[in-house]
Design brief:
single chain; alpha+beta; Hypothetical Protein Yqey, Chain: A, domain1; 11 helices
Protein backbone atom coordinates (compact mmCIF):
# COMPACT_ATOMS: atom_id res chain seq x y z
CA UNK A 1 0.00 0.00 0.00
CA UNK A 2 1.33 3.43 -0.96
CA UNK A 3 0.85 6.22 1.59
CA UNK A 4 -0.97 9.24 0.18
CA UNK A 5 0.59 11.99 2.24
CA UNK A 6 3.02 12.56 5.11
CA UNK A 7 1.88 12.93 8.72
CA UNK A 8 2.55 16.40 10.11
CA UNK A 9 5.40 15.21 12.38
CA UNK A 10 7.15 13.18 9.66
CA UNK A 11 8.55 15.38 6.92
CA UNK A 12 10.53 12.76 4.97
CA UNK A 13 9.55 9.70 2.99
CA UNK A 14 12.01 6.81 3.24
CA UNK A 15 12.12 4.30 0.40
CA UNK A 16 14.19 1.59 -1.26
CA UNK A 17 15.94 2.30 -4.54
CA UNK A 18 16.84 -0.63 -6.79
CA UNK A 19 19.19 0.27 -9.64
CA UNK A 20 21.49 -1.21 -12.25
CA UNK A 21 24.22 0.43 -14.35
CA UNK A 22 23.90 3.72 -12.45
CA UNK A 23 25.84 5.08 -9.51
CA UNK A 24 23.80 6.48 -6.64
CA UNK A 25 24.40 10.16 -7.40
CA UNK A 26 23.43 9.78 -11.06
CA UNK A 27 20.31 7.84 -10.07
CA UNK A 28 19.35 10.54 -7.55
CA UNK A 29 19.86 13.18 -10.23
CA UNK A 30 17.41 11.32 -12.48
CA UNK A 31 14.84 11.06 -9.68
CA UNK A 32 15.19 14.75 -8.88
CA UNK A 33 14.75 15.79 -12.50
CA UNK A 34 11.65 13.62 -12.97
CA UNK A 35 10.11 15.14 -9.82
CA UNK A 36 11.24 18.73 -10.54
CA UNK A 37 13.21 18.76 -7.28
CA UNK A 38 16.79 19.61 -6.41
CA UNK A 39 19.17 16.78 -5.57
CA UNK A 40 19.46 18.29 -2.08
CA UNK A 41 15.93 17.00 -1.44
CA UNK A 42 17.32 13.46 -1.27
CA UNK A 43 19.43 11.82 1.42
CA UNK A 44 21.33 8.54 1.51
CA UNK A 45 23.79 6.91 3.86
CA UNK A 46 26.35 5.91 1.23
CA UNK A 47 26.91 5.47 -2.48
CA UNK A 48 26.52 2.25 -4.43
CA UNK A 49 28.66 1.37 -7.41
CA UNK A 50 27.47 1.64 -10.99
CA UNK A 51 28.69 -1.81 -11.95
CA UNK A 52 26.23 -3.76 -9.81
CA UNK A 53 22.58 -4.46 -9.10
CA UNK A 54 22.07 -2.63 -5.80
CA UNK A 55 19.43 -1.92 -3.18
CA UNK A 56 19.66 0.93 -0.69
CA UNK A 57 17.45 3.14 1.46
CA UNK A 58 16.96 6.81 0.58
CA UNK A 59 14.91 9.65 1.98
CA UNK A 60 13.17 12.43 0.10
CA UNK A 61 11.83 15.74 1.40
CA UNK A 62 8.94 17.62 -0.12
CA UNK A 63 7.39 14.80 -2.13
CA UNK A 64 4.65 12.33 -1.15
CA UNK A 65 5.19 8.59 -1.50
CA UNK A 66 2.55 8.39 -4.20
CA UNK A 67 4.53 10.62 -6.56
CA UNK A 68 7.64 8.53 -6.00
CA UNK A 69 5.72 5.32 -6.71
CA UNK A 70 4.48 6.74 -10.01
CA UNK A 71 8.09 7.03 -11.18
CA UNK A 72 8.21 3.26 -11.66
CA UNK A 73 6.32 3.76 -14.92
CA UNK A 74 9.19 5.92 -16.23
CA UNK A 75 12.38 4.60 -14.62
CA UNK A 76 14.58 2.61 -16.99
CA UNK A 77 17.45 1.85 -14.64
CA UNK A 78 15.54 0.45 -11.65
CA UNK A 79 12.58 0.91 -9.34
CA UNK A 80 11.49 2.46 -6.05
CA UNK A 81 9.32 0.99 -3.30
CA UNK A 82 8.88 0.09 0.40
CA UNK A 83 7.79 3.58 1.41
CA UNK A 84 7.35 4.93 4.92
CA UNK A 85 7.30 8.39 6.47
CA UNK A 86 10.02 9.32 8.95
CA UNK A 87 10.99 12.36 11.02
CA UNK A 88 14.58 12.73 9.81
CA UNK A 89 16.39 12.37 6.51
CA UNK A 90 19.36 10.10 5.92
CA UNK A 91 22.88 11.55 5.93
CA UNK A 92 26.17 10.22 4.63
CA UNK A 93 27.47 7.70 7.17
CA UNK A 94 24.04 6.73 8.60
CA UNK A 95 24.49 3.04 7.91
CA UNK A 96 25.37 -0.11 9.84
CA UNK A 97 27.20 -1.77 6.96
CA UNK A 98 26.88 -3.37 3.54
CA UNK A 99 26.14 -6.91 2.37
CA UNK A 100 27.52 -8.14 -0.95
CA UNK A 101 27.08 -11.13 -3.22
CA UNK A 102 30.04 -11.13 -5.59
CA UNK A 103 29.77 -12.83 -8.98
CA UNK A 104 32.82 -13.45 -11.18
CA UNK A 105 31.90 -13.95 -14.84
CA UNK A 106 33.93 -15.28 -17.77
CA UNK A 107 36.58 -16.80 -15.47
CA UNK A 108 39.27 -18.45 -17.59
CA UNK A 109 40.67 -20.96 -15.07
CA UNK A 110 40.16 -24.59 -14.11
CA UNK A 111 38.47 -25.68 -10.88
CA UNK A 112 41.75 -26.39 -9.12
CA UNK A 113 43.01 -22.84 -9.75
CA UNK A 114 39.75 -21.33 -8.54
CA UNK A 115 39.78 -23.44 -5.38
CA UNK A 116 43.40 -22.47 -4.69
CA UNK A 117 42.55 -18.77 -5.04
CA UNK A 118 39.53 -19.07 -2.75
CA UNK A 119 41.57 -20.94 -0.15
CA UNK A 120 44.25 -18.25 -0.22
CA UNK A 121 41.65 -15.54 0.26
CA UNK A 122 39.96 -17.40 3.12
CA UNK A 123 43.23 -18.09 4.95
CA UNK A 124 45.20 -14.94 4.23
CA UNK A 125 42.52 -12.33 3.70
CA UNK A 126 43.28 -9.22 1.69
CA UNK A 127 44.48 -5.65 2.18
CA UNK A 128 41.38 -3.52 2.54
CA UNK A 129 42.26 -0.81 0.04
CA UNK A 130 39.75 1.69 -1.29
CA UNK A 131 39.37 1.23 -5.03
CA UNK A 132 38.12 2.89 -8.19
CA UNK A 133 34.62 3.41 -6.85
CA UNK A 134 36.00 5.91 -4.33
CA UNK A 135 38.48 7.67 -6.62
CA UNK A 136 36.79 7.54 -10.01
CA UNK A 137 38.16 6.17 -13.26
CA UNK A 138 39.54 9.31 -14.92
CA UNK A 139 42.97 10.93 -14.73
CA UNK A 140 41.57 13.54 -12.30
CA UNK A 141 40.86 11.60 -9.13
CA UNK A 142 38.17 12.63 -6.68
CA UNK A 143 40.80 12.82 -3.92
CA UNK A 144 42.59 15.62 -5.84
CA UNK A 145 39.38 17.62 -5.70
CA UNK A 146 39.02 16.71 -2.03
CA UNK A 147 42.42 18.10 -1.01
CA UNK A 148 41.71 21.32 -2.93
CA UNK A 149 38.47 21.70 -0.94
CA UNK A 150 40.25 21.01 2.35
CA UNK A 151 42.81 23.71 1.51
CA UNK A 152 39.98 26.14 0.59
CA UNK A 153 41.37 26.34 -2.96
CA UNK A 154 37.88 26.86 -4.33
CA UNK A 155 38.96 27.93 -7.82
CA UNK A 156 41.19 24.88 -8.20
CA UNK A 157 38.48 22.53 -6.96
CA UNK A 158 35.92 23.98 -9.38
CA UNK A 159 38.40 23.84 -12.27
CA UNK A 160 39.28 20.20 -11.54
CA UNK A 161 35.60 19.30 -11.74
CA UNK A 162 34.94 21.27 -14.92
CA UNK A 163 38.11 20.75 -16.96
CA UNK A 164 38.63 18.08 -19.60
CA UNK A 165 40.62 14.96 -18.83
CA UNK A 166 42.45 12.46 -21.06
CA UNK A 167 40.49 9.43 -22.15
CA UNK A 168 36.97 10.74 -21.56
CA UNK A 169 34.22 10.37 -24.14
CA UNK A 170 33.93 12.89 -26.96
CA UNK A 171 30.50 14.01 -25.68
CA UNK A 172 31.95 15.35 -22.44
CA UNK A 173 35.41 16.30 -23.69
CA UNK A 174 33.95 18.60 -26.36
CA UNK A 175 31.73 20.58 -23.98
CA UNK A 176 34.47 20.86 -21.35
CA UNK A 177 37.00 22.16 -23.87
CA UNK A 178 34.47 24.62 -25.32
CA UNK A 179 33.79 26.10 -21.88
CA UNK A 180 37.51 26.28 -21.07
CA UNK A 181 38.04 28.17 -24.32
CA UNK A 182 35.14 30.65 -24.12
CA UNK A 183 34.21 30.88 -20.44
CA UNK A 184 30.61 31.30 -21.63
CA UNK A 185 28.50 30.01 -18.73
CA UNK A 186 25.15 30.34 -20.51
CA UNK A 187 26.36 28.40 -23.53
CA UNK A 188 27.93 25.78 -21.28
CA UNK A 189 24.61 25.25 -19.49
CA UNK A 190 23.01 24.68 -22.88
CA UNK A 191 25.77 22.26 -23.90
CA UNK A 192 26.53 20.24 -20.75
CA UNK A 193 24.26 17.14 -20.62
CA UNK A 194 21.80 17.09 -17.73
CA UNK A 195 23.38 13.95 -16.29
CA UNK A 196 26.57 15.97 -15.59
CA UNK A 197 24.79 17.26 -12.49
CA UNK A 198 27.88 18.29 -10.48
CA UNK A 199 29.33 20.36 -13.32
CA UNK A 200 25.96 21.94 -14.03
CA UNK A 201 25.53 22.85 -10.35
CA UNK A 202 28.81 24.78 -10.45
CA UNK A 203 27.91 26.49 -13.71
CA UNK A 204 24.52 27.49 -12.29
CA UNK A 205 26.37 28.92 -9.29
CA UNK A 206 28.57 30.99 -11.60
CA UNK A 207 25.49 32.27 -13.41
CA UNK A 208 23.86 33.26 -10.13
CA UNK A 209 26.86 34.64 -8.20
CA UNK A 210 29.47 35.50 -10.83
CA UNK A 211 32.30 33.56 -12.45
CA UNK A 212 34.80 34.62 -9.77
CA UNK A 213 32.63 33.36 -6.89
CA UNK A 214 34.06 29.84 -6.76
CA UNK A 215 33.09 29.09 -3.17
CA UNK A 216 29.47 30.04 -3.76
CA UNK A 217 29.42 28.01 -6.95
CA UNK A 218 30.74 24.92 -5.16
CA UNK A 219 28.17 25.34 -2.40
CA UNK A 220 25.51 24.59 -5.01
CA UNK A 221 26.85 21.04 -5.35
CA UNK A 222 24.89 18.57 -3.23
CA UNK A 223 26.38 18.25 0.26
CA UNK A 224 26.77 14.48 -0.06
CA UNK A 225 28.82 14.98 -3.20
CA UNK A 226 31.09 17.57 -1.58
CA UNK A 227 31.62 15.23 1.36
CA UNK A 228 32.48 12.41 -1.03
CA UNK A 229 35.39 14.45 -2.40
CA UNK A 230 36.74 15.01 1.11
CA UNK A 231 36.20 11.36 2.03
CA UNK A 232 38.14 10.38 -1.09
CA UNK A 233 41.16 12.22 0.31
CA UNK A 234 40.72 10.39 3.62
CA UNK A 235 40.62 7.14 1.66
CA UNK A 236 43.81 8.03 -0.19
CA UNK A 237 45.54 8.62 3.16
CA UNK A 238 44.24 5.25 4.38
CA UNK A 239 45.63 3.48 1.30
CA UNK A 240 49.05 5.03 1.82
CA UNK A 241 49.05 4.07 5.50
CA UNK A 242 47.92 0.52 4.74
CA UNK A 243 50.75 0.14 2.21
CA UNK A 244 53.26 1.49 4.75
CA UNK A 245 51.95 -0.94 7.39
CA UNK A 246 52.38 -3.93 5.07
CA UNK A 247 55.79 -2.74 3.86
CA UNK A 248 57.07 -2.43 7.43
CA UNK A 249 55.50 -5.48 9.08
CA UNK A 250 54.12 -7.74 6.34
CA UNK A 251 50.55 -8.99 6.07
CA UNK A 252 50.82 -12.46 7.60
CA UNK A 253 49.52 -11.53 11.05
CA UNK A 254 48.42 -8.68 13.30
CA UNK A 255 51.01 -6.66 15.20
CA UNK A 256 50.78 -4.36 18.19
CA UNK A 257 48.82 -1.26 17.26
CA UNK A 258 46.56 -2.94 14.69
CA UNK A 259 42.80 -2.67 15.14
CA UNK A 260 41.36 -6.15 14.70
Amino acid sequence: MVLKGPPQDKRFVEFTLFKTNQDTMTAVSHLARLLSLGTKSFGYAGTKDRRAATLQRLTAHGVPAGRLAELNKRLRFGAVGNFKYVKDGLKLGDLYGNRFSIVLRDVDADDARVEEACKGLAEGGFINYYGRQRFGSTSISTHQIGIAILKSNWAEAANLILCSRPGEKDETRTVREAYASTGDVEQALRDFPHWMHVERSILEGYRKHGVDQHSNALSGVARNMRLMYVHAWQSAVWNKMASARVRLFGAASAVEGDLV
